[in-house]
Amino acid sequence: MSGIYRDIAPLRDSGSETEDDRGPVASARVPITVIEPEGYARGGIVVLHESREFADALLELMGSLSSEGWIVVAPNLFHRNGATDKVFGDDLFADFDACFDWLTARGVFGDCIGVLGFDSAGTAAFLVATSRPIGAAVSVAAPGIAEPLTDRADALIRAAPRLQAPWLGLYGDDDFGTPAAQVEHLRDAAASAVVATLLVSYPGLHHRPDRPGFDSSDSEDAETLMAAQTRIFDWFDSHLR
Prior knowledge:
Blueprint: E1 3-10, E2 17-20, E3 23-27, E4 29-36, E5 43-48, H1 56-67, E6 70-75, H2 89-104, E7 113-118, H3 120-131, E8 136-140, H4 156-159, E9 167-172, H5 180-190, E10 197-202, H6 219-239
Parallel strand pairs: 5-6, 5-7, 7-8, 8-9, 9-10
Antiparallel strand pairs: 1-4, 2-3, 4-6
Domain Dienelactone hydrolase: 35-239
Region (Disordered): 1-24
Protein name: Carboxymethylenebutenolidase
């Protein structure tokens, strides 16, 4: 079924609800938003996002990915009772696995599944790539480089050598949340992984295809945005085969 719609993805090995030391916390199904391409799908991309709502720019990017032949699946990472805006640890991996299984049940091969995330969800996408041998991963403006964002997440510099999927990282030189010196250290750490990695820094802050906010009359801003989006598309084209 082409177009955009909502569905549910069952969690692995769970009953009607999951439970941890805080008690019952979630339904055993992850609500997902899906955009399917017309005709044959050549793979799938799981889009992690840090907001409870979809910004128009993010929906536009997801639609563009779908038009390139990818099934795009975005899980609601905040479906658990009391969930915060940063979902990491076992909850994150369980939700990603549910999306992965949903895609493979529709005939998508595991090595043709990628993950994409922005901000803290970009950190989440990176950590998924350190624990799941998927086809490719992309993180945009992912913080938590030198110090972990939460006690349920590792610092990216420490986790980088464990990357199991080709990883692309996009950063802005003027982003106070990701200091340039830390980004350079992450570049070096990622280079020690056994998979292909590429970290690209852009001038300013206009490297965010999910949240443009740039002056369309400024050709440099427009070029940066287009360059960043093109790198994302090319990374998935190159590695999801």
